[in-house]
Amino acid sequence: MTESETATGGRPTLESVAELAGVSRATASRVVNGGAGVRAVLREKVERAVAELGYVPNLAARTLVTRRNRAIGVVVAEPEARFFSDPFFAQHLRGISRELAAADNQMVLLLAEDERDHERIGRYLAGGHVDGVLLFSLHRSDPTPETAQRLGLPFVIGGRPGWPGAESDRDLVYVDNDNRGGARLAVQHLRSLGRTRIATITGPLDQTSSIDRLDGYRDLFPHGDGDLIAVGDFTADGGIRAMTELLTRRPDLDAVFAASDAMASGAIRVLRAAGRRVPEDVAVVGFDDVESIAAWTEPRLTTVRQEIEEMGRLMTRLLLRRLNDPEASAPSSVIIPTGLVVRESA
Amino acid sequence: MTESETATGGRPTLESVAELAGVSRATASRVVNGGAGVRAVLREKVERAVAELGYVPNLAARTLVTRRNRAIGVVVAEPEARFFSDPFFAQHLRGISRELAAADNQMVLLLAEDERDHERIGRYLAGGHVDGVLLFSLHRSDPTPETAQRLGLPFVIGGRPGWPGAESDRDLVYVDNDNRGGARLAVQHLRSLGRTRIATITGPLDQTSSIDRLDGYRDLFPHGDGDLIAVGDFTADGGIRAMTELLTRRPDLDAVFAASDAMASGAIRVLRAAGRRVPEDVAVVGFDDVESIAAWTEPRLTTVRQEIEEMGRLMTRLLLRRLNDPEASAPSSVIIPTGLVVRESA
DNA sequence: CCGGTTTCTGAGAGCGCTCTCGGGGCGGGG
DNA sequence: CCCCGCCCCGAGAGCGCTCTCAGAAACCGG
Hints:
Chain A has helices at 3-7, 14-21, 25-32, 40-53, 59-66, 82-85, 88-102, 115-126, 144-151, 179-192, 208-220, 236-249, 261-273, 291-294, 308-324; strands at 71-77, 106-112, 132-136, 155-158, 174-177, 198-202, 229-231, 255-258, 283-288, 302-305, 334-336, 339-341. The first copy, chain A, has 346 residues and is an alpha/beta fold.
């Protein structure tokens, strides 16, 4: 055991590796970082020393000089409780994790619930501990994108940001599911089934995903009937309320496109309670393809599937690319295709 | 703008703060870290300089000398896919996040899927980037606890570890829900309803939560009938299979305690399909109190509630306490009480 | 007004690493 | 045989911070 090894509280340093290998710290460093330009003899010596000592680089020291953390922050503004209750959250994280692991980067999870959290997160980002940021559930009032921009921290947003001008802001790179296209898919499917009086239950209209899904519906009904549109809130209870409303307004409806599976399950419940058969009398299509709901309604739910994990992966890839090549022009936003999963309800 | 400020790529350093305030770096550092032992005049000068420059300490540098990261790792071994699909994951993280935020610590999320991930995580932990570790979904084969122990990294486990000897290992601090007590609660409730032929559907018996829930059931039937016990897998499909099995073995059963809400929902489906009324003919109690299931079965599910978020918080608090006072004796493990939520199914 | 405390402050070392820069060794061309 | 160029390697500076240590300043009692 060498002198310098014991000095750092047991953990070997590059210095001790170099000493054991009989080379300089610089050479040891070269080997640890790929070994380019080091003779094979020395390289092997160093590698043996590394193995023997169980040397692991101290990243704090490395970060201090390279100014690279090999870590990215994932900021989730939580008040959108939906993000939490649905399995989306876990799937996103899994996608991010996989992509990050492949690039040997770490994920720092930052959950924001209130104003103070945003401040704390701002400070953290300013502290320079992450090389980039992934942002979810953006609100207009969310200060994080601005903070990141000011700090020169690359970031990628999950879901289309909704405030005015966001769309045209080239700095706002986002990844989103094709909500609008998915909605069109759903409605087209209902039409192909011969349905003509197709209603829709929307999500809360201050969220872009709701708006886009409604827009997709409207694409097929340019001169649509407002009575066939009811506003929900993505929850099953909201679906119940909206369906009840629709049923009184338009008892003749023969299909419903609900902008979430939870709302669809609520709607089905109401329909059956009202004596309508699903799908015979009223066909129902949902959105999300949440396994625990879609596979468990009676009848099983026809719905629009979105690739949540892929979304996480893509966001991460976009961000990493940007980190590795800061000079490159900002990548453009990406829309991930959605697909229809036909089961029994339509 | 001072010389040293521009040197670091725009971000002000302690040096530049000191310069602007007209004090030494040491004094500036003191102020930034609480300001004890600094005259008010100087303190204010420094504080103004900090505000003016927008100074934020570089944690890499700080970590390098203090050997404290103000970050903890959360390691989730994912193969237990349940952790991901259920809302548990998000709730745990939220609890952890809240507690960590209060202590101004960060959370590094480490998801493990395969062998390589465990290696990567081992390396990461060895890198000394986190001060402690929270471990979930522990398998016997999981090398992480051992790694942490070897590295002297304090850790706290979520859920009772199951391998032989784990229980008596004083170093293995864990936090768990009172699975056994919750199961007893459920069965007692069924008994109080006058039910006598109470069956149970267990989870996979290689998980301690399953075992503990089964043990709770057995506590009330010391000489129980093996025919009344069916092994499930925590999923709704598993519940269907197990219930079908139970119904053929013991058509006379009048109550079922399912070790998860998902299994309970499957069981209810089978029971109704078999013409049994719930709860009149067969009373059903679940476990978990997963909102999206328990509130949506028909009839609504009576179930055992567990405080997931509290579990995350508690684990975090235990870990932080340990970090702040490494000399203190290892805290003992904690069991969080569960409670019965009576709805309609029993 | 002076010596002894006590309180503050600044100089400087050092955390572990990367990276530049220059020197030494070696080969090849003149 | 000499010189030039190339390839490796090591010395050393420096990343931004904390913390010890010693000296300066302020304070007190006599």
